Amino acid sequence: MSAKYDYVRADKFTPESRVNWKSVGKVMSWKKEEEGVVDRVTLALDSGHKVYIYFLSHQTFRVRFNPDPKAPYVPTESPATVEDRIEAYDLRVKEENGVLQMNTDFMEVRVNLEKYALSVYRGSQLIHADPPDYNLVYIPRDLGEAVANFKMAPTNAQYYGFGEKGGASLDKRRVPKQHFYGQFGGKIYEKIPAALTFFNYDNFGYEVPDLTPD
């Protein structure tokens, strides 16, 4: 029997509230292994869950996580890639000072083992990072089952979709405040920073000049 999932409105998907949401915790052990033609690094968490990190090339990787610790993981399939292994690469993995370091010739992916948090470096430059305390979070299956992943971004960062032209602003971190519902909306005269989620691509406003601030 397939699992039943309830429809959740945008204003009800609120991982930033931390109500019923749990963080993945400490990484108890890790293992590098092969899955088909790609390398996979498996992280075993103290909660009984696992995080899988797949390397597809020297500059591409994929993270998989399921909030149900008993969920079976089928062989990786992604519509984003035509082939599992995009190009040949050499993956070097080591643990040092409580950090798991996964290196290719192009990047270094780091995972804090004491409390899971992922970051990516190109040389000495940090190019991608989870917040250290609250990043990969989930609601357990008995409470509805959901997953969210928070990422760090500079205050003045902008986001433009690949060819996306809808809405009053091409920058999807600046959207009409009327876009937000419920607890996000606030009072009519208030302005709040835009939260960047895939819901930014619904309910566009076109003639509303009052955009969220930069």
UniProtKB/TrEMBL annotation:
InterPro entries registered for this protein in UniProt: Gal_mutarotase_sf_dom, Glyco_hydro_31_N_dom
Any GO BP annotation: carbohydrate metabolic process
Domain of life: Eukaryota
Pfam families assigned: Gal_mutarotas_2 (PF13802)
An example Gene Ontology molecular-function term: carbohydrate binding
Domain Glycoside hydrolase family 31 N-terminal: 51-209
Transmembrane annotation, as ranges: none
Protein name: DUF4968 domain-containing
